[in-house]
Amino acid sequence: MQTLLADVVAISPLTDHVHKVILKPQQPVSFEAGQYMQLVLGEKDKRAFSIASRPSQTDQIELHIGAAGADSYAMQALDHLRQAHTEQQQVNVEVGLGVSQLRVEGERPIILLAGGTGFSYAKSMADHLAEIGCERPVLFYWGVREQAALYAHDEMQAWANSNPHFQYIPVVENAPQSWTGKTGYVHKAVMEDIVSLEPYDIYMAGRFDMIGVVRDDFINHGAVREKMYADAFAFIK
Ligand SMILES: Cc1cc2nc3c(=O)[nH]c(=O)nc-3n(C[C@H](O)[C@H](O)[C@H](O)COP(=O)(O)OP(=O)(O)OC[C@H]3O[C@@H](n4cnc5c(N)ncnc54)[C@H](O)[C@@H]3O)c2cc1C
């Protein structure tokens, strides 16, 4: 783990509830794709956020923070970042945390499963896999409640077009009639598409209740527990 001071360079809206934050660390940052960082608000108050940027971007850290509700965990963190930005103060961060980072070795196909802002976790791995010229099949499923939450849809389509082994599958839970893609829960779409999950390395991020349901459903659908990665596992039963 690396402890750093960082400038808050920019905070911009991605949707009504999700904000992109760019931090510029005082020294080059070192982490693996799929790891997270903690924003230090106090000695015992540290807020976890996945790093959306890829490891080769050593001069910046990108975060996607979904913040709804005035006093929520994420909104408090965002307020802290906004204040530091306005006052041109640095923030304390701890980078390179988690055990669910991308395992680049091996031949197994990969599923990246993101619920909502869990996108951030999967995005870092997707970009890293493109950068290293990965030839394993990679299926990137992104589930959102409303279509407007697909804030990086065009970027993901371009990512999928960059490599014949990559596929991007957006899944809108409450889709309008004009939506021609997949609907419902994102992990159900995976199970409709794939007969058995046994061959796959599966990386996932989303709400804790989602991750609990997905873990159980995927194991029933053939997934190997040791090949399923989610930092949320450490927080749920
Ligand atoms: C280590 C760590 C890192 C984190 N990093 C971030 C971060 O970078 N940014 C951030 O905002 N939060 C982060 N969190 C908090 C947490 O991951 C988010 O609360 C979660 O990703 C937010 O999802 P959402 O509200 O956008 O999803 P929602 O909009 O609630 O859901 C999106 C989709 O997820 C699926 N889904 C949701 N609930 C269920 C369910 N019960 N059953 C099945 N499927 C379901 C559906 O497909 C749904 O359409 C982190 C937490 C931890 C522990």
Automatic annotation (TrEMBL):
The keyword Oxidoreductase applies. GO terms for molecular function: riboflavin reductase [NAD(P)H] activity. This is NAD(P)H-flavin reductase. Belongs to the Fre/LuxG FAD/NAD(P) flavoprotein oxidoreductase family. It is an enzyme of class 1 (oxidoreductase). InterPro entries: FAD-bd_FR_type, FNR_nucleotide-bd, MRET, OxRdtase_FAD/NAD-bd, Riboflavin_synthase-like_b-brl. Residues 1-103 form the FAD-binding FR-type domain. Its EC number is 1.5.1.41. CDD domains: flavin_oxioreductase. Keywords: Luminescence, Oxidoreductase. It comes from Pseudoalteromonas lipolytica.
